[in-house]
Amino acid sequence: MNPPGGVSVGAAAAGVLPAATVALALALDAAVAEPPRRLHPVAWFGSLVARFDREWSHPATVGLAVAVALPLFAAAAVALAVGLATRLHPALGVAAAGLAVFAATSLRMLSSKAAEVVAASDADLPTARERLRWLAGRDAADLSAGEVRSAAVESAAENLADGAVAPLLAFALFAPFSLAAGAAAAAWVKAVNTLDSMLGYLDVSHGTASARLDDLTMWIPARASAVLLALAASLPASLLAARRWADAPPSPNSGWPMATLAAVVDSRLEKPGVYVLNPGGALPSVETSRAAIRVVSVAGVLAFLFAGLLAGVATVLLPEVVAWL
Predict the structure, then answer these.
(1) Tens digits of per-residue pLDDT, 122-166?
(2) What gap in Å lies between CA 216 and CA 226, rounded to an integer?
(3) Any stretches that span the bilayer, and where are they (predicted)?
(4) How far is 39 from 284, CA to CA, in rounded Å?
């Protein structure tokens, strides 16, 4: 019997499972950072996407089919694996879902790669320019040390949204229905983002649908990432400053986390010839860049914590809401 005005013991216990899933994903990120490439599901998916990156007689049609079918394929594969594991034992379901969320997210690797670029920018600029390829697709051959650091900081902010907040939010929203649904949603978001990163360029006509889908998918996560950065820095006013600059980049979403981080560390972040954020500031120093990366790391941990809390609470309350309706 349920306690008056309360929830059942079973519902409360069920809420532990999605929270444990997120906790496992965070623990794996902290301990491992990334799976080996040969075992990484995102790398497998990237190999599949690469097969479609060629000239087509009807590029718009093919691009739309790819944008719809490939993320659904990734989500279905993950849902099947987690569903089968859950049927065997709930603990196996948590383990499978945790692995799926871990594969769909990246925090420690992002922070460490950005920190390596920043460190090299002070001691060995050519190496810093070379390592920037890990984070950003821009041509770094003529970038100054400050511009290299700016690119690293910008990429850390943007990838916080792509690589952590978006898949975690998707998991949190769908996990109350089942761990398989939550893990599949995280995989779908990661697949959409991977398609955009590989095909979503202005000169790739079969990538237009992927780019537009990513724009829609990332609208909320990008703005949520800005809020998390402001919380991580304990500077809510940074969001007000970010509003003035967030539309400068051509992307409808990436400007929000980047502009917020520019305000948090009071530095100019600039992609030469494309956009400038916080134009009144100076390009980030090594110390400022390191501070920015720390803020991104804290915001990423907050994303995991909030996702686990949201998924757990929603799982507990969902049966009560359904019964009330």
Answers:
(1) 889 999 999 998 888 788 889 999 999 999 999 999 999 999 999
(2) 17
(3) 6-28, 61-85, 91-110, 168-189, 295-318
(4) 36
Farthest CA pair distance, the chain: 70
208 to each of 129, 166, 195, 324, how far by Cα in Å? 29, 20, 10, 43
d(CA 16, CA 316): 9
- Residue 163 is given by DSSP the state I
What is the chain's mean pLDDT, rounded?
Answer: 93
Helix segments in 106-178, DSSP class H: 108-123, 125-131, 145-160, 166-174
- Tokens representing 292 are 């920015």
Quote the CA–CA distance of 117 and 120 in Å, as a whole number: 5
Cβ–Cβ under 8 Å, residues 152 and 130:
no
pLDDT at 100: 98
Is 153 in contact with 261 (CB distance < 8 Å)? yes
